[in-house]
Design a protein that fits this description.
Layout: H1 4-9, H2 19-34, H3 38-51, H4 56-71
């Protein structure tokens, strides 16, 4: 277990908010994500899930293929 401050310091998280602000902050972020292109979100998720088990070069190739699919 680590503290929120430690998680931010090691860049495990990009933001720390007080507990009382957590739900409103999450709801605002969800609203932003909700407006993203669904196909782009699906490809981003695919890149993360599949890329975890790939060497860097193959992960970058996967990412490039998915980006190209979004262009057409």
């Amino acid at each position: 277990m680590i503290t929120a401050a430690e998680a931010k310091k090691i860049k495990m998280v990009n933001r720390v908010v007080p507990r009382k602000e957590l739900l409103p902050t999450v709801e605002k972020l969800a609203d932003v994500i909700r407006n993203y292109d669904w196909t782009a979100l699906a490809y981003a998720k695919q890149a993360v899930v599949e890329g975890l088990d790939l060497p860097l070069s193959q992960g970058l190739e996967l990412e490039a293929r998915l980006v190209n699919l979004l262009r057409y």
